[in-house]
Amino acid sequence: MENTKRELSPQEWSYLTRYFVGNNYRFRENIIIPKTLGPVQIKTNEEKRVEAFFESCPFKTFMSCVVGYGLGAAIGLFSSSVGPSATDVEQQTARQVFKEMKTTTLSYAKNFAIIGAMFSAVECTIETMRGKSDWRNGTYAGGVTGGLIGLRAGVKAGVIGAAGFAAFSTAIDYYMHSRF
Fold first, then answer.
1. Where exactly are the transmembrane stretches of this chain (predicted)?
2. Other residues' Cβ atoms within 10 Å of the Cβ of residue 11
3. Most C-beta atoms within 10 A of its C-beta, which of 58, 93, 102, 105?
């Protein structure tokens, strides 16, 4: 038996090219995706846009600000109820106590909101610039955030704040990722 080769016509080459390169004959429902952890569903464009919005830096920063405000308000309320700052406690009226509690609660809430927004914005920016999502992003963001907060009290306080906040961020990131 002789091995004969068959030449393809230009129409057959065109058909094969459109089939393998073009998207004319392959439909979305015919894509085979291996199932590793349950059924796989292809996301629609609307789902991709919503996911991109929720993963954006402005949304993350805003949510960190809101959650920080709520957490700070809760801690401030607890702090003001446990240890009042007034020296003449016996002469205080209920109105003065509530005013003091409001001041402390709002102060804590504002500070936690600023720190949360600043950390989230810096971390998201670093993650975007590096193109990676790993523990270093939180460490770098902690260093920048702690440094900026401590810098108000001087350079030495800025360096100590940067080191402390970076170490804390790294420890929290390690704890959160090692649990899951």
1. none
2. 8
3. 105
Residues 79 and 104: beta-carbon distance below 8 Å: yes
What is the SS3 assignment for 8? coil
Q: Within the chain, which residues score under 50 in pLDDT?
A: none
pLDDT in tens, 58-88: 999 999 999 999 999 999 999 888 876 656 6
Backbone dihedral region for residue 131 (phi beyond 0: left; psi -120 to 50: alpha; all else: beta): left
CA distance 148 to 29: 52
Q: How far is CA 120 from CA 19, 39, 76, 144, in A?
A: 47, 33, 21, 11
Instruction: Look at residue 89 in the predicted model and tell me its pLDDT.
Output: 59
Separation of alpha carbons 68 and 32, rounded Å? 44
Query: Nearest-CA neighbor of 137 among 148, 147, 124?
Result: 124
Amino acid, res. 137: N
* Distances in whole angstroms, Cα of residue 44 to Cα of each of 47, 49, 101, 153: 5, 9, 49, 51
Residue recorded with tokens 């704890």: 175
Provide the token pair at 132: 């990676």
Please give the backbone phi and psi of residue 32, each rounded to the nearest 5 degrees, phi first.
-100, 120
